[in-house]
Amino acid sequence: QAAALDGAGGSILSFNAETTLYNSILWGGIGAVGPELYVDGWDPNLPVDVSYCDVASGQAGVYVGQSSTLNWLAGNLDANPTFEDADGPDDDPNTWDDNDYHLAIGSPCVNAGDPAYIMQWAYEPDIDGELRVQKCVIDIGSDELKISGSPSGDADEDTDVDLSDFMQLQQCCEEAIDWNCLTTYDFDSSCLIDEADLMSFVARFSGPGVRN
Questions:
Q1: Quick one: which H or E segment has residue 118?
Q2: Does an H or E element contain 39, and which?
Q3: Residues 6+ apart with CB under 8 A from 164
Q4: How far apart are CA 108 and CA 155, in angstroms?
Q5: Helices (H) and strands (E) in the chain, counts
Q6: Alpha-carbon distance 139 to 103, whole Å?
Q7: End-to-end CA distance of the chain
């Protein structure tokens, strides 16, 4: 959460500057005008480009001056990023030191970054020093939700791999890249739910009460 001293641009203020906002979360900003992003200046040839960002209220959360240019590009979200504990143990979002801004399981920012993103180094860390891309697509924001364990095929976590898990697998095959699907069914780490994963699932299928 960020507050604007002059009432404008609680999260980001860009004044007469060419700016690129990419793979970022702008959420919880406080400002009378453009609480998340304030774009102003006198040169329309100095645009602000926004892509693969999660911005509260979307473009409505952005103030754009009459002589300024905002390019609202691909991949932007307007969805609560779902942090682990955004207001901390004291339930006060304004005491930032104890707030936990790590992405929680189920966050819409997970696997929602630029699918064309390529790490610049062999090991590119997030804010915790963990591998930047954990599962196929980079997460939006500075934190990458850490993957632990291997795919089990047990989508409903009822300790067996059965028909309900198969029905969820069918749905995953019909969807675009989905973090929950990949962590449950992408047995070969191919970033796709395909025939090879179906065969691996069948090998694990055992019915209620039994799990291989």
A1: none
A2: strand 37-40
A3: 155, 156, 158
A4: 18
A5: 3, 10
A6: 9
A7: 47
pTM of the model: 0.76
pLDDT surpassing 50 at residue 41: yes
State the Cα–Cα distance between residues 150 and 131, nearest whole angstrom. 16
Provide the pLDDT for residue 15. 87
* Contact assessment for residue 181 and residue 134, using Cβ atoms and an 8 Å cutoff: no
Best CA proximity match to 105, nearest among 148, 136, 142: 148
pLDDT at res. 207: 61
Q: What phi and psi, each to the nearest 5 degrees, are found at residue 173?
A: -65, -20
Neighbouring-strand partners of residue 13:
38
Long-range interactions of 172-178: CB distance < 8 A, separation 24+: 173/198, 177/111, 177/115, 177/136, 177/137, 178/111
pLDDT digits (tens, 9 = 90+) for 193-204: 888 888 888 888
- Which of 118, 4, 107 lies closest to 54, judged by CA? 107
Other CB atoms within a 10 A radius of the CB of residue 201 amount to 20
29: tokens are: 């900003």
The answer to whether residues 137 and 108 touch, using CB atoms and an 8 Å cutoff, is no
